């Protein structure tokens, strides 16, 4: 993928009226954003645990053997779990309904995804960001990366330009899944600022030299530069 053309630093920074760095209020793990969608997936070969909620903090209520098809009724977000195939952190949990009860399996141990046409833009964006982990072609083009997760490009010249328009200044504790999380401009980011896509549990996926997941709360670098979050514009469709 071609990289965006570099932008004039002086012009970008002169136009910046960015939200100030804030004291970090972290987000506790909890189930969020349930969305009903029918699809199927195949369990990892070693077998999988079934839990009463979307996270490893919920009790194991059953198990399923490996390589069996499960028919799911929806997805939620919860404990971030590295997938068993590529070790990529994944916040998604899939549920099926049995005996009137939701039963959950981590996406990280399921080979199968909801059809992209049937889910929300932020679900498409998170799915694409999770899959993009490990890529090196973005090479710190963080704004282009988050725009690409939402199926668009060329919307803002830099992270600070996006922040000036989208940043609510909200605390990390209030950041929704799929929101854009912003960081202050500084000499080490060329005064362009930085941005990632939020996947819950104080964690974002962002483009550095490698696309990766970072826990904002435990990173002294990111926690000291966090300025707030913003919703992706409604016109951004999510990557198909």
UniProtKB/TrEMBL annotation:
The keyword Signal applies. InterPro entries: NLP_P60_dom (IPR000064), Papain-like_cys_pep_sf (IPR038765). One of its GO terms (molecular function) is cysteine-type peptidase activity. Transmembrane segments: none annotated. Keywords: Hydrolase, Protease, Signal, Thiol protease. One of its GO terms (biological process) is proteolysis. Coiled coil: none annotated. Residues 1-19 form the signal peptide. Residues 135-227 form the NlpC/P60 domain. It comes from the Bacteria. The keyword Plastid does not apply. Belongs to the peptidase C40 family. This is NlpC/P60 family protein. It comes from Tumebacillus permanentifrigoris.
